[in-house]
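Q: Hi! First time doing this. I have a protein sequence and I read that you can turn it into a structure. Is that right? Here it is:
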Amino acid sequence: MTASQIVDDAYGTYAGDPSKAAFLGGADQVLTAEQVESFVFEAISALDVDGKDVCLIVPDGTRTCPLPMLLKPAHRALQGRVKSMKAVIALGTHQAMDEKHIARFFGFRPGHADEVYPGLEILNHEHHDPTQIVNLGTVPAERVTELSGGRLHDVPMKVELNRHAAEADVDIVIGPIFPHEVVGVSGGNKYFFPGLSVHEVIDVSHWVGALIGTHAMIGTRPVSPVRALINEACQLIPAQRYALCFVVKSNSEVLHAVSFGGCEDSWAACADVTVQTHVVYKEKAYGTVISVMPEKYEDIWTAAKGFYKLEPIVADGGLLVIYAPHITEIAVMHPGLKDIGYHTIDYFVKQWDRFKDHSWGELAHSTHLRGPGSYDAETGVETDRVRVALATGIPREVVESVALEYIDPATLDLAKLAEDPDTFVEPHAGEVLYRLESERPGV
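A: Yes, that's right. Below is the predicted 3D structure, encoded as structure tokens:
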């Protein structure tokens, strides 16, 4: 059963209404910077923010995002009107961005943020610091069961959020939308949960995604069970919530579309575009797929997107290689992955008593990178649909200890490999989803 087949009336208005959002562009359009800046300034200027505390929620550097193009006009529309203005980087559990990285991403000289964004305080989300987190309440276990499509039982979800977003009068998400392995299509409320949250919401939502499976989930447009859980958690946020969503061509500053409105409505408007612009269909599956990861992915926790986005076009028994010589760590913020390794969902489910107390977020990530497969509890044999190899700067012994294959990146000639008709090389992996033509909706 696909994610789209399990959406039902339990999700109510969570689907969002694109017609309620201000919108510019389309799947076949390229917007100019002037068009975007004018749209953003007018949309933000119309908000009732005078004398209020405003929190802007922005992505980290693992997303293609021409942030200054969006943030500068938003800042101009808010400056002089608001009581306070903060920008919180929605790291989730990713590594914090340092001053140099923040400056480059936001578009100012290190140490001179006030020259470009006067009055704007820029902060990393600190999921590990309890003084920076506010408990907003709990989604009851029975509601979790309902929204997860019956996948979880007796599991309430405590909702905790970064205090700057929780204590603001107005929250404005500013971020791109891409196909996503856990939630179907990213963006919108996902910047709150998991972007500004802590482990409980992350663990529950990601584990539901793992139980569904990335192949069924990724790039599906309807509201998925995971997004329904996230949207439910957002109902506990006291602030007014808006989203400035946009669809950006991967590895560029080219925008196809931009929308603004309530979080659900704005997300829906751009989600309709990204499933057209960021999903590529191939006529055949390949024996070998090479995902070349950009340097913005600093560990396998983030670079695993090179697997999620290309696994659908790997033939049964084929090989997917994550090529990233610059990566030297499995997961800087998640050392527990070295304890469990990478396995199929079956491996964990059939040994649940052994793994149930481990971080569900780490379990979910593990299954996402290993992909579809099965586990025979009697024989201890794990069978994968595809093989996964790392061609990185991570030592062989570490790679093999987490149950993945090792390839020395120096032995790979990407140009020569690309000449093989049974090999596909994606030079900028991580954001564009590949599927087989037979999986195209309506086929």
